[in-house]
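Look over this entry.
=====
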Amino acid sequence: MSDASQTEARAILNHLASTTFRDCIPLSKEFRELPMNAGIYAVRHRTMGILYIGKTRLLRDRFRGGHKALLWAFIENLNARDTRITFYELEFEQWIRLSSELESLIIQAVNPPYNVRIPARE
C-alpha cells in the first residue's frame, strides 16, 4: 500500500475518531439525516468509541437496508441514544479507486470490535 494511501487513511481515521459524539449523526428509524453519498463511515458509541468501520456508495441506503453493527449493538443492549454514525465523504471516483484499501488500513489501525465479528463483504 502506498504512503499516500496510508496518509489519507490516517486523515480519515482522525476525522472519524475526533468528531465529537454530539456532532455525529444520531440513529433514526428512516436514517433521513444520513447523506446519500459515498465514503467511509464509523458506528460510534458514546463511551466505547468506534464499534465498526465500513465503506459505502450510498450511506443512507446502507443503513436503511439494515446493518449488522446495529444488530450487535441491540444484542449487547446498547442504548440507541448512545450510538451514532460519523462519515467521511469520498468523491465517487476516489471511492471506486481507493475505498477498499482505505477501509482496510483504518480497520487494521482501530480493530473495531464489530468488524472482528462481522466478515467483510466481498
Q: What stands out?
A: The mean pLDDT is 90. The beta strands are 25-26, 39-45, 49-56, 83-89. The two ends are 19 Å apart (CA to CA).
